[in-house]
Amino acid sequence: MVQTGGRLLARLLRDAGMTHLFTLSGGHIMEIYEGCADIGVPVVDFRHEQAAGFAAEAAARLTRKIGVCAVTAGPGVMNVVTAVANAWRSQTPLIVIGGQAAQPTIGMGALQEMDHVAVLAPITKWAVRITSPKELADTVQRAFQAATTGVMGPVFLECPMDVLFDRAPDPSREIEADILPLTASEEAIQQTLDLLGQAERPVLLLGSQILFSPHAPQIRSVVEALGLPVYTNGMARGALGADHPLLFLHSRKVALAQADLVILAGVPLDFRLNYGASIAESAQLVRVDRDVAELHRNRPGQVQAYADPGHFLYKLAQRFTPPPHSWSTWKETLLQEEKRREAQIAAEAAASSRPVNPLRMCLEVNKLLTPRSIVIGDGGDIVGSAAYTIRPRGLGQWLDAGPLGTLGAGAPYAIAAKLLYPESDVWVIFGDGAFGLNGMEYDTAVRFNLPFVGVVGNDAAWTQIKRAQLPFYGRAIATTLLPSRYDKMVEALGGWGAYVEDTADLPNALEKALASQKPALVNVRIGETDFRKGSISM
User: Fold this and answer.
1) Residues 123 and 81: beta-carbon distance below 8 Å
2) Closest alpha carbon to 192 in 275, 333, 309
3) For the chain, what is the domain count?
4) What is the CATH number of the domain that holds 93?
5) Can you tell me whether residue 119 is helix, strand or coil?
C-alpha cells in the first residue's frame, strides 16, 4: 500500500495522543479517513463542524492529552472557528486539520478555497499551511509542542489536497508526546511558605490549568497536605470529589472578602472574580499561572510564579508543615456560611412543584450521580444553578465551555465522553436556548449508539439575558422562545424522550432515561426563580 500524506498524518496524530478523529465528511480530507481506518483510529462524523471541534476539545480534557478534529476547506473551516476560539479561551490543547485545494490550483478559483490560516492565526497557538508531505512529521511535532507548552491551546494545520494524496516518506523520528510541567522556582515557594506562616485566613483557589498538570492525579493528596480551605474553578471542579472537608462551594464571596491570603493556582482575575475586586484589598496574593501575561493582569501579586500550578502546589506541600490550629476557626466561619447557603437553596428548591424549580431539577440529577458520572453544563442561567447544586465526583468529570461563554457544546461533549468512557453515565444540563444550537447531534449519538441523558431546563426564554433586560428597560426583547417539545425531536431521531411539568414525576423520568440505554432527553418545564437575580450576563 502506498503511504500517502493523509495516511502518514493519521499515524503521526495517533502517536501524538489522538484516540478518535472527529469530523464532518469532506472531500479535501478523505485520505486522512483512510489512514485512520488502516490503523484502527475511529472516525466519528458529526452534523456540524462546530460539534466536531467541541468533541475534540472534550477528548483533550477527558484524556489529558490532545484532541484532534479534521474539517474540509472553506465553510468547513469557518464552521469550526467557534470551537477553536473556545479551546483558545479555555486553554485546551487541540489540533485542528483544515482541508485546502491542491496547491497548483490555489488562486485559480478552486472549490472552497480561502485563506484559512489568516482566519485562524489570532485564535490559535500556531497556524500554518503544510506545503509538502516531507514536512508532516516535523510539523505535527511542532504542533503538539505548541499546543501543550506554556499556555495550552489549539493549533491549526492547513493541509492542501496534494499534500494529503501525494506519496509521503517515512519520518526520521517518532513523535514525542509528553506534557512537561513549568517548574516552580525555589524563591516563589519560599515566599509563599513565609506568607502561609503569617496567615490567619488563607484560601486556595484551584483553576482549570490543574487539569492538564502532570501532578493532576495527586492534587487531592497535595491539597490535604496543605490543609487550606479550597474553592474550585472551571475545569478544576471535582478535583476533591463531592464532599471533601476542605472543599467549600457556597461561601467563596465571604471567603474572598475576609481572607488575608489568597493563592490563585491557575485562576485568572477575570470577570468571574470581578477582575480582582472580589478579593479584599488587604489580602496578600500568590498568583501561579502558565501565562506570564496573566500574572500581571488587573492586580499584582506579592508572589507571581510563572509555573505549572500543580507543580507549584506539589513543591509547596513537600515543604509545608500546617500550623497546630490548622486554621480551624477560619474554616468553621466558612462552614457556617456554607450551611446557611445550603439551607437557602433547599428552601428555594422546595418552593414550587409545578412547573419544576430549576434548583430542584439539578438536585434530582445530583442524587443519581455515581463516582464515575460525567456531568456537562451547556447553557446560561440553568448552568449557573447547576454549579451550586451538582457536585462532580472527580477531576475531569465536569465539563462546560468555559470563559468564552459558548453555547452548543453539550451534546458534542457528551458524545466524546461516552466514546472515551463507555462505562460511565454521562449527563448534560441543557438550557433550552443552548439545546437549539447542536441538538441535532442526538442524531450522531444514535448512529454511534452512545447513550447519555440530557436534561433541558425549559423556561421558554433566554433567561440570563432577560434577567439583565428587565431591570434596565422594563421589558425583554429577543429573549422569548417557545416551550418546545425537544423530547419529541429526540424520539424522532431514534432516542428516548420524556416531558415533565410536575416535580413528582421528575425522579422517575430521570431514572427511566438512564435505564433506556439510548441517547435520552428529559424536557423539564421549569418556573422562574430569583435565585440568580442580578447575575452578570455581559
Assistant:
1) yes
2) 309
3) 3
4) 3.40.50.970
5) helix
The span from the CA of 31 to the CA of 35, in Å, is 6
For the residues 98-105, what does the mean pLDDT come to? 94
365/245 same-domain check: no
Residue 344 maps to a domain: no
Q: What is the CATH number of the domain that holds 325?
A: 3.40.50.1220
Q: Are 464 and 384 in contact (CB under 8 A)?
A: yes
> 3-class secondary structure for 96-147?
EEEEECCHHHCCCCCCCCCCHHHHHHHHCCEEEECCCHHHHHHHHHHHHHHH
Give the model's pLDDT for residue 538.
58
- 146 and 255 assigned to the same domain: no
Q: What pTM, to 2 d.p., does this model score?
A: 0.96
Strand partners, 158: 98, 129
296 with 379, same domain?
Answer: no
Cα–Cα distance measured from residue 370 to residue 399, given in angstroms and rounded to the nearest whole number: 16
- Predicted confidence at residue 2, as pLDDT, reads 78
- Residue 51 sits at the vertex; the CA angle it makes with 164 and 366, to the nearest 5 degrees, is 140
C-alpha cell at 314: 506539589
Average pLDDT of the residues in 371-391: 95
Both 373 and 465 in one domain: the answer is yes
Q: For 199-259, where are the alpha helices, taking DSSP H only?
A: 219-226, 252-258
Residue 343 lies in a domain: no
Residue 179 lies in a domain: no
Q: Across the chain, which distance is largest between two alpha carbons, in Å? A: 75
Residue 460 to residues 386, 527, 532, Cα–Cα distance (Å): 18, 10, 17
Residue 190 included in any domain: yes
Whose CA is closest to 283, among 303, 297, 265?
303
Range of the domain at 300: 186-331
Note whether 53 and 14 are same-domain residues. yes
Pull the grid cell for residue 386.
Answer: 447547576
At 182, the pLDDT band (50, 70, 90 cuts) reads confident
For 109-156, how does the pLDDT look when each residue is reduced to its tens digit (9 = 90+)?
888 889 999 999 999 999 999 999 999 999 999 999 999 999 999 999
439: its cell numbers = 441538538
